[in-house]
DUF3592 domain-containing protein (Streptomyces flaveus), 161 residues
Amino acid sequence: MAGVPLCILFAVALILLHRAAWLAVLSAVPSLFVLVGAVQYAPEAALEQRGVRESVVIVADSAAGTSSDNHRFTLRGKDGSELEEKLEYNGDAWAPKVGDRLDVISDPQGEVPMEEADEVDASGRLDGLIGGTVTWTLMVVLAGWRGHVRRRRGIEYDLPV
């Protein structure tokens, strides 16, 4: 929750301090990588480290026959027992159907919701988080250097370039 206001504050600070809206626009891309990486890295890392991988079959869909995009799949394991936790899926772009087989990773401690195994990529989230942070840091240094050089040359900040 704090990430979005901080990103907006960063963009406003760039506009006010450097009178350069293009810096604020450029800061939006690395901020997305930082926000997405920060939010999704921890759960995916927990699933990768302590998660249990299991092949399952979808036996029921709570949204079957409705126009709802929110699916809650009831799953059955290889041993024939129904899993306690339900797999949640939002969207219709590619919604699995009853009878489909999936590989899922579930948290034995129950702290992280179950996910499809092929969608868990903690290292990719970490790469995005690090890349966004490094890019943001470089932008701050370059913006500061640009402001320093412009002040030494006596250039006023009356134009938004």
The chain has a mean pLDDT of 77. Residues 3-46+122-153 form one domain.
